[in-house]
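Q: Convert this sequence to C-alpha cells.
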Amino acid sequence: MDNPSQERCIQCRLIIQDCICRDISAFWAEHKITLLTSKREERIISNTGRLLRCMLKNISPVYIGKKGWEKEVESEIARTDYTPIVLFPTPPVWDGQMIIKEMGKPLNIFVLDTSWRNARRWLRKPVLMNLKKIGLITAPSSEYYLRKQSGEGYLCTFQAVTLFMAELGTKGFSAVSFQVHERFTLWIKSLARQRGLKITATPS
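A:
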C-alpha cells in the first residue's frame, strides 16, 4: 500500500528512488494541449495528466472551479494560431486530420483530465459546448490497470493524448513515442509496486 510518509518527486509523484524525471526530455508538439483539470484531481498521485505535463512542453492546465477559469478557456479558444477542439469520443466525432487540412493550422486540444463521469458533466459546460469533438480512430485496451476504467475503449488521459498525437501524425512524435510509452510503463509499475500489487506481466 502507499506510504504517505515517503518523500515523493513533486513532478512525477513517485517516491524519490523511483523518480523518472531525470530520464525525461520533454517533447515540443506542434499541437497544443489545454488540460482541463481540477486541484483535487491534480493532488491524486495516480493522476496521469500531471505525468503528461512532464513529457510535453506545449501544454497548459486550466483548473475548473478556480475563479476565472471560464475566461482562461475563452482566451484559449480565441487564439488564432490554433484550431480548438475537444478530445472526447462521443458522437458526432470529427476527423482531426481533416480539420487540420481545412484550417491550415495545428490544433489546440482541450483534454478533460478527470473521471469519465466528471468529463461528461464538464463537456456540457456552456464554454465548451460549441467546440468540435474528436475521438481516437482506434482505441486499444487500457494499459492503466491502477484505476478501473468505465468501459471498453475508455482510456486514461496520458494514453488517450499520446495515441491521438500518433494518429494525427504529429511532427517528430514517432521518434519519441517509444520512450514516452516506456516511461509511462515504468511509472505504472512503480506505483503498482508501492501499492503492493504483484505484476506478473507487462499490461496490454
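The radius of gyration is 17 Å.
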